[in-house]
Amino acid sequence: MTNTAQAVIEETAEAKQQSKKQVQSVELPQVNQTDVASTAGSIDILLDMNVPVTVTIGQTEIPVRRLLQLGPKSVLPLGKSVDEPVDLYINQTRFATADVVVVDGCFGVKIKTIIGINKEE
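Given the sequence above, the corresponding structure tokens read:
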């Protein structure tokens, strides 16, 4: 091996040793069961949070050509009967079905069924 190649190999080995990190042990504090239980009671902070609820009255698929032709007074059928319940969503997850009602001149929903929230729905 030439002296130049030997010097490069030695330099590389020396650089690798310098780049190694020092490992240190850490003492973590012990957590008591009472500390965990007291923070679990803090769910009250969540009870006053607002969450967006979305109501879906129906849906349809149309070609882009037809979509671009829509204008005022166009009717877009949604493929759902007027007596069928609507779906309620929180964060794109269906959680209930309801009937559409009118309350003081505004739309509202009257919940019929609460659905268990899970990823399969």
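The mean pLDDT is 81. Try to locate this feature in the token string yourself.
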